[in-house]
Amino acid sequence: MQPLDPLVARGTPVLVSVLLAVGFFVSALAGCPRLPPVSGCTPGEQRCADDAPEVCSASRRWHRAGDAPCRAVGGTCASDGGVAYCAPADGGAR
Amino acid sequence: MTPLTWDQARALGEHLAGETSAVVTSHDDGAMAVAGTLLRTLAAMVKGAGPVVDLVLARGERTSVTLPTPLGTIVVLARAASASPVAYARTITHEAVHAGQVQRLGGLQASVDYLGSGELRAVREADAYAAGLWTEFLLTGELPSPDPALVSIAGGLYHLDAEDIALARAVVVSHLTTIRAGLCPPLAVAQSTLRWLHANAPEALAIEPGDAP
Question: Which residue of chain A has the CA closest to B212?
Fold first, then answer.
């Protein structure tokens, strides 16, 4: 097999990087922020949904606090005083 | 209890970076210049992103950045992260949450979400700050006040309006209420940090989950 010309060998990774970068940014042009759907909730309101705390935004969308359900940390979602959070699943027994 | 060492803090950072497919570098490595160029290019293409990027780059020495690139996620740590092993662990935990967001959503969508929506930026920063507070809690035994995090979120760096700041505050308060209840916040990076410390630096843990403050 013919060895690569040193200039080509040096240039190929650069070219690949440039193409990847161009693809990345061109794709970004087409993107929009992926917001949760408008639900009509009251801004500031909190709730438990799918065993996870959620907070209502000013645009009336539910946003999850965290990236896992409460059961993943050994808890269950609870609401107290208007704050939704993960509480021990056993009610606090250790 | 023995304070976390630098070697342990860096090993935790490598672990979290590995789990979130990120590479960690320091501000001194010149990576910030590359990150800045990429960020400015991306900001030019996402409506409303310019002021956010300008603010982040203007505070480059004090602000750590997680940047999705076509070749992978880069975490550029600010000099402030070198203040102590605990500061390093807190910072790397925060940035690992962002790296996890990139991993979960994809670099493109994570970037567009973060730069294009104050609401999404507020929630993602709140999750990341909460993970940092959790790490600090594990290593010091003192539940940190949310105030410095909220001041930072509201301080202009993230270019959030009052409604977005209120949203971030509510998310941080939810996570701190979970910690007060004796549980790890429902964040994959927070869980991973606890598991790693348990396995590799148990003497540095100042508190066990379940010991509600």
Answer: A92
Alpha-carbon distance of B73 to B24, in angstroms, equals 9
- B207 touching A, CB under 8 A? no
CA dihedral B29, B106, A72, A61 (to 10 degrees): 110
Select the residue from B174, B189, B211 to test the A interface by mutation, using most A Cβ atoms within 10 A: B174
Residues, chain A, total? 94
Residues of B in contact with A83 (CB under 8 A): 173-174, 177
Q: Where are the beta strands (DSSP E) in chain B?
A: 22-26, 65-69, 72-77
Closest CA to B184 of A31, A25, A71: A71
Condensed to tens digits (0 to 9), the pLDDT of residues B59-117 reads 666 788 898 887 789 898 988 888 999 999 999 999 999 999 999 999 989 989 998 99
Those of residues 116-155 in B touching chain A at CB distance below 8 A are: 116-117, 119-120, 123, 126-127, 130
- pTM for this structure? 0.83
Per-residue pLDDT tens over the stretch B151-184: 888 887 788 999 999 999 999 999 999 999 999 9
- Cα separation of A71 and A77, whole Å? 8
